[in-house]
């Protein structure tokens, strides 16, 4: 498709703040790498923001920058909206006059629905929502993507190809986006709390703190890779580690007594409910 091919060559960013970071890395952090891993050349990326304060991150990579949001739409067919959620509707309404049938528009703002965006844009505009999480900054993110009513498989494949530079990207129904916030967005903090507790247990037993925290983090990393690469259910891997009367089953019993699983499930539920509440505001 012509639009997809053009969008691959030029990517625009409307908004250059913190929310732009993961998507910017997906498209531009590959610039310095050789070979097939390269996604988009820096000179083919255009970013806009009201001031130069946030644009400096793009400028440092050799990207083009502007203070005009409409100019980004006029230069690029694939445009990522990385503004704060409460100003996104106004920004979308501002650029709507220059949106064409060839544009692919992507929002990374939490809480702004596809239907809201589609209502502000010309009929049949192709819109998607993307929600990354913090580990995208080390190319190990968990990203979900939901397509609007007028988006086809070619557009989703194009976007997924770009975003996989930041980690694992899954297409989901829009109803799952808030659940992703509770599971993976907030889940980063939950995992950090568990990693900290693991390390502190080792410190209690006499291991130096810095060593304990490194080993705890590596244990989480290695376990996650085994779960992803082997495709195993966590219960199977947990069972493989346990031996009758061994150390692990004693430790698991202590975790069950402390209510770890119930507390974790409640944490994801609470974070998801809060995400839904914020989306309604």
From TrEMBL:
Q: Pyrroline-5-carboxylate reductase catalytic N-terminal domain: from which residue to which, for each copy?
A: 10-111
Pathway of this protein? Amino-acid biosynthesis; L-proline biosynthesis; L-proline from L-glutamate 5-semialdehyde: step 1/1
- Annotated NADPH binding lies at 69
UniProt entry tagged with the keyword Acetylation? no
Q: What is its main location?
A: cytoplasm
* InterPro entries assigned to the protein according to its UniProt record, in alphabetical order: 6-PGluconate_DH-like_C_sf (IPR008927), NAD(P)-bd_dom_sf (IPR036291), P5C_Rdtase_cat_N (IPR028939), P5CR-like_CS (IPR053790), P5CR_dimer (IPR029036), Pyrroline-COOH_reductase (IPR000304)
Q: Which GO biological process annotations does it have?
A: L-proline biosynthetic process
Q: Where in the cell is it found?
A: Cytoplasm
Region spans: Disordered: 17-38
> Which molecular function GO terms apply here?
identical protein binding; pyrroline-5-carboxylate reductase activity
The residue range of the signal peptide is none
Which keywords does UniProt give here? Amino-acid biosynthesis, Cytoplasm, NADP, Oxidoreductase, Proline biosynthesis
Gene Ontology cellular-component annotations: cytosol; intercellular bridge; mitotic spindle
Q: What protein family is recorded?
A: Belongs to the pyrroline-5-carboxylate reductase family.
Q: What task does this protein carry out?
A: Oxidoreductase that catalyzes the last step in proline biosynthesis, which corresponds to the reduction of pyrroline-5-carboxylate (P5C) to L-proline using NAD(P)H. Proline is synthesized from either glutamate or ornithine; both are converted to P5C, and then to proline via pyrroline-5-carboxylate reductases (PYCRs). PYCR3 is exclusively linked to the biosynthesis of proline from ornithine.
Under which name does UniProt file this protein?
Pyrroline-5-carboxylate reductase
Q: Which organism is it from?
A: Macaca fascicularis
């Amino acid at each position: 498709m012509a639009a997809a091919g053009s969008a691959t060559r030029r990517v625009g960013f409307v908004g250059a703040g913190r929310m732009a970071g993961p998507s910017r890395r997906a498209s531009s952090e590959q610039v310095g790498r050789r070979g097939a891993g390269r996604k988009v050349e820096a000179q083919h990326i255009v970013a806009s923001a009201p001031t130069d304060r946030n644009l400096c991150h793009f400028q440092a990579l050799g990207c083009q920058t502007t203070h005009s949001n409409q100019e980004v739409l006029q230069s690029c067919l694939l445009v990522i909206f990385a503004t704060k959620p409460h100003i996104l509707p106004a920004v979308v309404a501002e650029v709507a006059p220059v949106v064409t049938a060839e544009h692919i528009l992507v929002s990374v703002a939490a809480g702004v629905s596809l239907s809201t965006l589609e209502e502000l844009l010309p009929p049949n505009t192709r819109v998607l929502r993307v929600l990354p999480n913090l580990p995208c900054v080390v190319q190990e993110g968990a990203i979900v993507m939901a397509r609007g009513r007028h988006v086809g498989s070619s557009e989703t494949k194009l976007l997924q190809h770009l975003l996989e530079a930041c980690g694992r990207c899954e297409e989901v129904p829009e109803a799952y986006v808030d659940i992703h916030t509770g599971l993976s967005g907030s889940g980063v903090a939950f995992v950090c709390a568990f990693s900290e507790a693991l390390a502190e247990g080792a410190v209690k037993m006499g291991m130096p703190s810095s060593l304990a925290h490194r080993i705890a983090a590596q244990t989480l990393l290695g376990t996650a890779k085994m779960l992803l690469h082997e495709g195993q259910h966590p219960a199977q891997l947990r069972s493989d580690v346990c031996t009758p009367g061994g150390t692990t089953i004693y430790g698991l019993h202590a975790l069950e007594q402390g209510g770890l699983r119930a507390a974790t499930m409640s944490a994801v539920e609470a974070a998801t409910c809060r995400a839904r509440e914020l989306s309604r505001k």
